[in-house]
């Protein structure tokens, strides 16, 4: 991350929360462990997105996710995969996010209506 004091404090809080969730999961057994693992994976995904997306790009992605949840999650997974493979240089800004959304958008069926 950028290393600012606020981000470091946030990261410390996240780590403490993760430890608490893991402790709670261990005490609850398998079901709790699965839930904690799911929450940890979600937290890691959000951290990667926060690291690689600008604020505008995150807002755009959240807007898409609100209207089309499956498509938004697919885009999130794609961004995380790109980040983990090291194919993202710098941050994804709003324009790059628009391009990514355009590329991943499912082909919509077009209808040509001709009047006689």
UniProtKB/TrEMBL annotation:
This chain's source organism reads: Natronococcus pandeyae
Q: Name one GO molecular function term.
A: DNA binding
Gene Ontology, cellular component aspect: cytosol
Name of this protein: DNA-binding protein CV102_11185
Keywords carried by this UniProt record? DNA-binding
- Family that this chain belongs to: Belongs to the PDCD5 family.
Q: Which InterPro entries match?
A: DNA_bind_arc, PDCD5-like, PDCD5-like_sf
**Where is there biased composition of kind Basic and acidic residues?**
11-27
Q: Where is the composition biased (Low complexity)?
A: 34-47
Lineage top rank: taxon: Archaea
HAMAP family xrefs: dsDNA_bind
Q: Where is this region: Disordered?
A: 1-48
